[in-house]
Write a structure and sequence with these properties.
Chain B: This is Gamma carbonic anhydrase. Chain B: Belongs to the gamma-class carbonic anhydrase family. Chain B: It holds the Pfam family Hexapep. Chain B: It is found in: Mitochondrion membrane. Chain B: InterPro entries: Hexapep, LbH_gamma_CA-like, Transf_Hexapept/Carb_Anhydrase, Trimer_LpxA-like_sf. The complex is a heterodimer of chains A (273) and B (244). Chain A is an alpha/beta fold and 273 residues long. Helices cover 30% and strands 23% of the residues of chain A. Chain A has five helices and 20 strands. Chain A has helices at residues 2-19, 24-37, 136-148, 228-251, 258-269, and strands at residues 60-61, 69-70, 75-76, 81-88, 93-94, 99-109, 114-115, 120-122, 154-156, 161-162, 167-169, 172-173, 178-179, 184-185, 190-191, 196-197, 202-203, 208-209, 213-216, 221-225. In chain A, the strands form two sheets. In chain A, strands 1, 2, 4, 6, 8, 9, 11, 12, 14, 15, 17 and 18 form a twelve-stranded parallel beta sheet that branches. Chain A is globular. With 244 residues, chain B is of the alpha/beta class. Chain B has three helices and 20 strands. Chain B has helices at residues 3-30, 194-218, 222-243; strands spanning 45-46, 54-55, 60-61, 66-73, 78-79, 84-94, 99-100, 105-107, 120-122, 127-128, 133-135, 138-139, 144-145, 150-151, 156-157, 162-163, 168-169, 174-175, 179-182, 187-191. In chain B, the strands form two sheets. In chain B, strands 1, 2, 4, 6, 8, 9, 11, 12, 14, 15, 17 and 18 form a twelve-stranded parallel beta sheet that branches. In chain B, strands 3-5-7-10-13-16-19-20 form an eight-stranded mixed beta sheet. The longest helix of chain B has 28 residues, at 3-30. Chain B is elongated. The chains are: A alpha/beta (273), B alpha/beta (244). At the A-B interface, helix 1, strand 6, helix 3 and helix 5 of A face strand 1, strand 2, strand 6, helix 2 and helix 3 of B.
Chain lengths: 273, 244
């Protein structure tokens, strides 16, 4: 009730200010009116918040003693964020915009697998920071682990293709699978060998996708079994993407030339190198 | 710097200049494939028109996130990697203790088919899962939006409600208190148990703590990063020798 009142109070002044034209003083007046009616947690800005960091976002973010590891011939796009316990094995590729957050548990991308654009892979449980052991979350994950016998870490085995914009959370994907684009795999799901998930499928928590079958839909339902030829195509797709990733890999030399820009900038701003 | 030091420095400079000249030669050979690298102009907090984001000092905003325009982020909130909060045509206000997870998009609607102007208001202790798309909605305190969910214009998610993963909540739907809505289009699935409601607030708290860890790590300077890398290598060597 109180929350609703708060929200309606926030809504009204805002609609007022949006209908006013962009003239400086009227906008100011509306702003101050809005500010006086807002009773709630005042946002305290910090003077030294960095608005622009020329370094951009780091690709590998170690948390505590866990540092992400990338194999020497794995291609990880510069856009990607690997945080915490993430291991990317040989021949694997992680494409642009993906976020692999191994901060709560381990994530591993197996041999010759690929995680395509804008995927988010996360693993639940076991936060190193304050986490009460008898919460429902812990119970839920332990229950799932007990049921499925699967750990809460996300492990992607060899020759797996994970389509673009998929979301994986604490799932196990056995060797040689294809996960379609925009699919969502929730906690505790298991995708067995040679399974294919169609694009847009949502796999509910704890669901097992049996071996050699094609599943689709939200929630994922059985469609048909795969023929032997289709099963043979799965590792071929992974290898093809591996080949593609090698040409991307060679585009990105170990050291870029951005440091020249930085030096120019420092010189022009009078900062000593 | 003594003479020897200066000599070594000059030698180093010559080697660098030679290297840069060879780099340029290689580019000339590559011809039209030459890409001149420039520093990324990506800005985490970006003004647009005259609106600028107002972010609390305790909030964690990942460097690869984009917070643009009229956005307010309260204390303890976290905006994770790759998310985009575009307050360009209207305002977004994110309460305290809320987490907006990786690769999500929060946008506002200036005008839509029904003609309403909708700011996005996200309350306190809300969990918005990975890759969610929130467009002109009101999400009240302690709600849970599952990953990959798409919430269209005018949706109101009430307190303690849950939008399941992958659902598409159509325009102007109201998700009542304590209910789980799922599917495409989103329909009522079941009611949340008390345990699950407690879990939602617990998860928000966990994320506040997790955000602090990430914030500390992302704020490190180059020196600190290099030092830690070296320490980690030394530690690995020590453990390797211990195992042997």
């Amino acid at each position: 009730m109180a929350a609703l009142a708060r929200i309606s109070r926030r809504l009204l002044p805002r609609t007022l200010s949006t209908t006013l034209p962009g003239r400086a003083f009227t906008a100011e007046a509306a702003q101050s009116a809005q500010n006086t009616t807002k009773p709630d947690p005042i946002i305290r800005e910090s003077a030294d918040r960095v608005k622009w960091d020329y370094r951009g976002q780091r690709r590998l973010i170690p948390l505590g003693q866990w540092a992400p590891k990338i194999a020497v011939d794995a291609y990880v796009a510069p856009n990607v964020v690997l945080a915490g316990q993430v291991v990317v094995y040989d021949g694997a590729s992680v494409w642009n915009g993906a976020v692999l957050r191994g901060d709560l548990n381990k994530i591993s991308v197996g041999f010759c697998s690929n995680v395509q654009e804008r995927c988010v892979i996360h693993a639940a449980w076991s936060s190193p920071t304050a986490f009460k052991k008898n919460t429902t979350r812990a119970l839920l994950v332990k229950y799932i682990a007990f049921l499925t016998g699967l750990p809460a870490e996300t492990s992607i085995e060899r020759y797996v293709t994970i389509g673009a914009c998929s979301l994986l959370r604490s799932c196990t994907i056995e060797p040689e699978c294809i996960i379609g684009q925009n699919s969502i795999l929730m906690e505790g799901s298991l995708v067995e060998t040679h399974a294919i998930l169609e694009a847009g499928s949502v796999v509910p928590p704890g669901r097992r996708i049996p071996s050699g079958e094609l599943w689709a839909g939200n929630p994922a339902k059985f469609v048909r079994t795969l023929t032997h030829e289709e099963t043979l195509e799965i590792p071929k797709l992974a290898v093809a993407i591996n080949d593609l990733s090698q040409s991307y890999f060679s585009e990105f030399l170990p050291y870029s030339t951005v440091y020249l820009e930085v030096e120019k900038m420092k010189k022009s701003l009078g900062i000593s190198i | 710097m003594g003479t020897l030091g200066r000599a070594v420095y000059t030698l180093g400079n010559w080697i660098r200049v030679t290297g840069q000249a060879m780099d340029r030669l290689g580019f000339q050979l590559q011809g039209s494939y030459y890409i001149q690298e420039q520093i990324s102009r990506h800005r985490t907090l970006m003004n647009i028109f005259q609106k600028s984001p107002v972010v609390d000092k305790d909030a964690f905003i990942a460097p690869s996130a984009s917070v643009i325009g009229d956005v307010q982020v309260g204390r303890g909130s976290s905006i994770w990697y790759g998310s985009v909060l575009r307050g360009d045509v209207n305002s977004i206000s994110v309460g305290s203790g809320t987490n907006i997870q990786d690769n999500s998009l929060v946008h506002v609607a200036k005008s839509n088919l029904s003609g309403k102007v909708l700011p996005t208001i996200i309350g306190d202790n809300v969990t918005i899962g990975h890759s969610a798309v929130i467009h002109g909605c009101t999400i009240e305190d302690e709600a849970f939006v599952g990953m990959g969910a798409t919430l269209l214009d005018g949706v109101v998610v009430e307190k303690h409600a849950m939008v399941a993963a992958g659902s598409l909540v159509r325009q102007n739907t109201r998700v009542p208190v304590g209910e789980v809505w799922a599917g495409n289009p989103a329909k009522f699935l079941r009611k949340l148990t008390d345990e699950e409601i407690a879990f939602i607030s617990q998860s928000a708290t966990n994320y506040i703590n997790l955000a602090k860890v990430h914030a500390a790590e992302n704020a490190k300077s180059l020196d600190e990063i290099e030092l830690e890398k070296m320490l980690r290598k030394k530690f690995a060597d020590v453990t390797r020798s211990m195992i042997r």
